[in-house]
Design brief:
The chain has 133 residues and is of the alpha+beta class. Helices cover 47% and strands 17% of the residues. The protein has a two-stranded parallel sheet with strand order 1-4. The chain starts with a helix and ends with a helix.
Amino acid sequence: MDIQEVTLEVEKKSLVFRKIMAEIEKVIVGQKNLIEKILVGLLCEGHLLLEGLPGLAKTTAVKTLAAAIKTSFQRIQFTPDLLPADILGTQIYRPNSGTFEIKKGPIFHNIILADEINRAPAKVQSALLEAMQ
C-alpha cells in the first residue's frame, strides 16, 4: 500500500468520523473534546473510561453515539448485590422441550455503559473484565 492509497483511505474514514461527530453534536453541546475522545476509542476498537462530575452528559454522549452509529446500547448499574449471571446471562431450562435456552445478558450489546463498577463484588468485576478481553 503506497502513501496515496493510505491518504485516500484516511480521507474516507475522516468523512465518516465527521458525520458521526456532527450527529452527536446535535445532542451534546460544548463537549467537543469528550466526543472526539469517545470516537477515537471507538475507532481504535478499544474500551473507554469516562470519568467526571455528575451531569456532564457522559451517559447521554454514549447513548447518542450508539444511536448515531445505529448499534445496540445497554447501561449496567453495578450494585453490591449484582451477580456475574446478571451481566453475562444464564441458561434457562425449558421443561416442555427438555432443553436449555440461553438468555444473554447486557454484556452482549455492542456499546455498554458500566456505571459505578467499584460498587460491584469482585466476582462481578472479574466477569466484566474477562468479557472485555
